[in-house]
Structures are given as C-alpha cells and as structure tokens.
Amino acid sequence: MFGNLGDMGKMLESLQESAQKMEADLASKEFTVKTGGGMVTVTINGKGEVLDVEIDESLLEDKSSLQILLIAAINDANKMVEDNKKNSAMGALGGMNPFTQQS
C-alpha cells in the first residue's frame, strides 16, 4: 500500500539535488546588459549581485539619464537571471512549468 512512498521520497530527493545543482550553476554565471545604445553596461551574477558597471563619460554630466539607464540595465539583468532560472527549471522538469499558476 505504501510501497510507492519510497519511490516518491527518492524522486523528491533527486529533484532537490537537481535544484541545488541548478542554483550553483546559475550562481557561477555572469549576465551582461547594455542600455542606452551601450552607454551603460551592467554585469551581474546568477545571485543577482552586481559585479561591474561601465558608464560612458558623456553621461556623467546628465544625472537623470544616468539614473534611468542604470535602473533599466539592472532590472534587465535581473530579468535575464530569472528567465534563465525558469528555463533551467523547465528543462530539468521535462517542460513542466512550476512558475505558472494552475486554475
């Protein structure tokens, strides 16, 4: 009657190991985004930590534009990380998307 629970436990353990491996793999990746025609470049890692910011000198006198482009670049880079997480998870789960709500 409960023989399948052991199989279920092994499957959950395997999924947890896969998730930890995916997280470690993602953390080691770098994502670079350019905004404003390449005037601002932001590089982050898979944890969402900003590793590098490059700013075109012409923006140093335009604080408002610089702020807007930095925000856009950081948000775009974080979106790349999230998209990569989703794609990795879907691949590991054979195409099932754990990020959509079932109704």
Model description:
The chain has helices spanning 3-27, 63-92, and strands at residues 30-35, 40-45, 50-55. A hairpin with a 4-residue loop joins strand 2 and strand 3. With 103 residues, the chain is an alpha+beta fold. A three-stranded antiparallel sheet has the order 1-2-3, with helices on one face. Helices cover 53% and strands 17% of the residues. Helix 1 runs antiparallel to helix 2 (63-92). It has a domain at 27-92: Ybab, Chain: A (2-Layer Sandwich). The mean pLDDT is 84. The radius of gyration is 19 Å and the shape is rod-shaped.
Compact overview of the structure:
This protein is an alpha+beta fold and 103 residues long. The protein has helices spanning 3-27, 63-92; strands at residues 30-35, 40-45, 50-55. Strand 1 (30-35) and strand 2 form a beta hairpin.
Question: Residue share in helices?
Answer: 40-55%
Percent of residues in beta strands? Answer: 15-25%
Total count of helical runs of at least 4 residues: 2
- Mean pLDDT equals 84
Strand arrangement, major sheet? 1-2-3
CATH homologous superfamily label of the domain at 27-92: Nucleoid-associated protein YbaB-like domain
pLDDT < 50 runs, ≥5 residues:
none
Q: Based on Cα principal axes, name the global outline.
A: rod-shaped
**Could you spell the SSE succession in H and E letters?**
HEEEH
Number of DSSP strand runs: 3
**CATH class wording of the domain at 27-92:** Alpha Beta
Going by CATH, the architecture of the domain at 27-92 would be: 2-Layer Sandwich
Q: Tell me the major beta sheet.
A: 3 strands, antiparallel
Structural class: alpha+beta
